[in-house]
Design a protein that fits this description.
37% helix; 11 helices; two-stranded antiparallel sheet; 6-stranded parallel beta sheet; alpha/beta
């Protein structure tokens, strides 16, 4: 028997949606109905996205949430959401709005109420924050910047190969919105963490992640303490922010699959 539950993969900043393809293939083999739509403004391929950075610029968190909410509305059944980085935060927002039956948030970007970011996270996002005008622009990482933010737990060769294969420019606006979230009562990165009627949520963190350090993932977990819904966490101590695309991606994907099965999703 097959489970035709839809699964939507949501990428984060600087990765193209096609970076989810190994996951899409695995979940299809497991009987799910997976799809990995890009953010609003993303082009169909990595190359096209690099050639048209202006089409990606100036989209904020609410724009991305609305984009995926519209996709969900057209599905025949409530989906499972699997998001990475800002995609993980988007998945949590949509789950809190009862738009999904469950979610896996991997190295998820900070939600409103999380502690101030550690220095490594500030350094990883410096390419955006060093220029206030980047709020309305798309920003491209260099290979060296990608290695610090994503590939610090990898060899230089593997990190550079991933950079060449998957990276695209990213809008700066979501980072500025998240940075100001704790000072804005209507912050775009606010998540309904008290919803006890939502589906199960799994948070996954990487112990060597510079961009979303484990302390941020733990702070997010603490915010769900008032909800009676299932909220679990799994740590990969030796993994960085690249854990969904690097040579160890299948261990992370299998962990997510096993958790989904345990919760009958």
């Amino acid at each position: 028997m097959t489970n035709q539950t839809p699964v939507i993969f949501i990428h984060g900043l600087w990765l193209h949606s096609s970076s989810w393809q190994p996951w899409v293939d695995l979940f299809a083999r497991e009987g799910y109905d997976p799809l990995a739509p890009g953010w609003p403004g993303d082009s169909a391929t990595v190359a096209e996205s690099r050639e048209n950075p202006e089409s990606i610029a100036d989209y904020g968190i609410d724009d991305v949430v609305d984009h995926y909410a519209a996709i969900i509305a057209d599905l025949p059944a409530s989906p499972i959401l699997i998001g990475h980085s800002f995609g993980g935060m988007i998945a949590q927002k949509l789950l809190g709005q009862d738009r999904a039956m469950g979610a896996v948030a991997i190295d998820a970007a900070q939600i409103k109420g999380d502690l101030p970011l550690p220095l490594s996270a500030l350094r990883a996002t410096l390419p955006v924050f060093k220029n206030p005008a980047n709020k309305h622009k798309a920003v491209t990482l260099t290979a060296e910047q990608f290695r610090y933010a994503f590939g610090n737990a990898l060899s230089e060769e593997e990190s550079d190969a991933l950079y060449q294969r998957w990276t695209i420019p990213a809008p700066g606006k979501p980072l500025f919105e998240a940075a100001a979230g704790n000072f804005n009562p209507h912050a775009s990165n606010k998540v309904d963490t008290r919803n006890s009627g939502r589906g199960p949520l799994l948070l996954i963190g990487g112990g060597k992640d510079h961009t979303v350090p484990e302390s941020v993932v733990r702070a997010t977990l603490a915010q769900y303490r008032h909800s009676e819904a299932v909220t679990d966490i799994v740590d990969f101590p030796d993994r960085g922010h690249s854990l969904i695309i690097d040579s160890g991606w299948q261990e992370v994907a299998t962990t997510a699959l096993d958790w989904l099965r345990r919760h009958s999703l």
